[in-house]
Please model this.
Amino acid sequence: MRELNERYRRTAKTTDVLSFPVYDNLKEIPGDREILLGDIVVNLHAAKRQGATYGNTFAEEVRRLLVHGFLHLIGFDHERSAYQKVKMNRKERDLQDALEAMD
Model:
């Protein structure tokens, strides 16, 4: 994960999730057919550690990271600004709540 982060984000440290979107923003995504949004890479070691820290099971933490990665695939970016961070956090919570309701 560190290698991927360094290669694609030029950050020489590990991370918990990386997203590699096909589209630059939500407006570019075609709505008339099935498409590939991109790839999400989850650091399972980080998920295990973080799950214990945040009080999540391993599966819950992996799901949290997948939701986070998915939002990046459709154009959300919490590193862009404080406003974008709040916006992404709100959307992340909405999606988590929806998924939990389906359990």
Q: What stands out?
A: Helices lie at 2-9, 44-54, 58-73, 82-102. The longest helix spans residues 82-102. The beta strands are 17-21, 38-42.
